[in-house]
Design brief:
By secondary structure, the protein is an alpha/beta fold. Helix content is about 35%, strand content about 25%. The longest helix has 17 residues. Bound molecules: flavin-adenine dinucleotide.
Length: about 400
């Protein structure tokens, strides 16, 4: 039996792919989905997210980003000493050559994300929640667009194409949002999940319908002997296993450390405010670049996501961030109305080179890792699941997995 630990987007996709290969699979998760990153994210299926945050200009921009109270980057200064080793490694990747290599690897992982989701969800109710739509970035003006030339050059280098819309054209594109923008970029072959929580529930049911087993609980120990894991422990009960796959998002670090693996991970905490029954909805995912806010039309709610907050995982959410997001929205779009607001904070599980680990755990013959997907785990979950299932079945994966090798740390 294969134990998949963690039932977020990555774990559920992996479990389905393994089950489709005829493997005996038990998926273990505490089933408090509301806490998982895969529940509260922006739902963006955006192949243009191939440029990591640690690009060469980051080091120069960092002081201003940290001091500007309106910027979407926050840090809890008293947690800094503990986060420093990770942060220094993260910044050490902000060189032209390393940033280009990270983009190449991210591109390989996410370029087909809409197709990968459609293939995973085909024939299930989850498929109805996948929307194939253009992705729009709204800029105040052309100068604001030009200030992000690095991003656009990288996207062009990797073959992405887009349309530029200026002035009154922006009104036709997203009429309700045009008051804050005179310049827009629109990209096809993008999409979104209209309700990530509901989507995961539907995929979990699909996994069970395929004969997969689900266990509500938290793995607190992985029992090993030599190069093999032979059991996992959940609430004092040992479950014998032939293989283990760790896909526990931010919880993976602890599990990997139990195996003696030293893979540096930090949460890039993110926030959403969700406007219930809003007076208007954008047509697809919109990046309001000046505000640092993504807006995604969800079922009956407009989900607005933002912020990278560097802080310890267990630290409580910072309610000032919600207020800042709502202030920005009401100031920029005073005509927008809503009935209620939902608030959420979650963890982007992030490794210093902005790439996940996908593959066999160093030192083990039967343990596999699939975590650390940072900003792109929702879109890349299905491909990660397919890659892990390929490795376990002995098939050759269709992309080069070297950049994702856990032995790189
Ligand atoms: C604000 C925000 C916006 C985002 N927007 C996007 C976006 O638009 N597109 C995109 O692709 N990505 C986006 N992301 C990133 C994305 O949400 C994550 O990369 C992705 O959800 C990670 O999925 P996961 O399955 O690895 O982890 P999770 O979704 O966190 O799931 C991990 C699961 O493992 C379980 N677990 C943990 N420890 C244990 C244990 N010991 N035993 C058993 N189970 C355990 C947890 O309970 C959880 O259910 C966003 C993230 C945030 C925070």
């Amino acid at each position: 039996m294969i134990a998949v630990i963690g039932g977020g987007m990555v774990g559920v996709a992996t479990s389905i792919r393994l089950r489709q290969d005829g493997q005996d699979v038990i998926l273990i998760d505490p089933m408090q989905s509301v806490r998982a990153a895969s529940y509260g994210n922006a739902g963006g299926l955006t192949p243009s997210s191939l440029v990591p945050l640690n690009v060469p200009s980051l080091i120069k921009r960092l002081p201003r980003l940290l001091l500007d109270r309106q910027s979407p980057l926050f840090i809890r200064w008293r947690h800094l000493p503990r986060m420093m080793p990770w942060l220094l490694r993260f910044l050490s990747h902000a060189t032209p050559a390393k940033a280009a290599a990270m983009s190449n690897a991210l591109h390989a992982l996410i370029s087909q994300c809409v197709d990968e989701h459609q293939a995973l969800a085909a024939g299930t109710p989850a498929a109805q929640l996948i929307s194939e739509r253009e992705f729009t970035v709204l800029y105040a003006n052309k100068r604001a667009y030009q200030s992000e030339q690095y991003l656009w050059k990288e996207r062009a280098r990797l073959g992405l194409r887009w349309q530029i819309i200026e002035g009154d054209g922006v009104n036709r594109l997203e009429p309700e949002l045009a008051s804050c923008a005179r310049y827009a970029v629109r990209m096809g072959e993008h999409g979104f999940i209209a309700d990530p929580g509901q989507y995961l529930e539907a995929l979990l049911s699909h996994f069970q319908a395929l004969g997969g087993k689900l266990l509500a609980g938290s793995v607190d120990h992985i029992l090993t002997e030599g190069r093999a894991a032979h059991a996992v422990r959940v609430a004092r009960e040992e479950i014998a296993v032939d293989k283990v796959v760790i896909t526990a998002g931010i919880g993976s670090g602890k599990l990997a450390r139990m195996l003696g693996l030293n893979i540096p991970m930090q949460s890039q905490r993110g926030y959403h405010v969700e406007l219930v029954e809003p007076s208007f909805m954008p047509k697809g995912v919109v990046n309001l670049s000046a505000l640092g806010i993504f807006m995604t039309p969800m079922v009956g709610r407009l989900r607005c996501t933002s912020v990278v907050e560097l802080a310890a995982c267990r630290a409580p959410e910072d309610k000032r961030i919600y207020r800042m997001m709502l202030d920005k929205i009401t100031r920029t779009l005073p005509q927008l109305r809503w009935q209620a607001v939902n608030y959420w904070m979650g963890h982007r599980p992030s490794l210093p080179d902005s790439l996940p680990v996908i593959g066999q755990a160093p030192g083990f013959d039967n343990v596999y890792l699939g975590y650390g997907h940072g900003h792109v785990g929702m879109m890349s979950g299905p491909r990660t699941g397919r890659l892990l299932a390929d490795l376990i079945a002995g098939r050759t994966p269709n992309i080069d997995l070297a950049p994702f090798d856990a032995g790189r740390f």
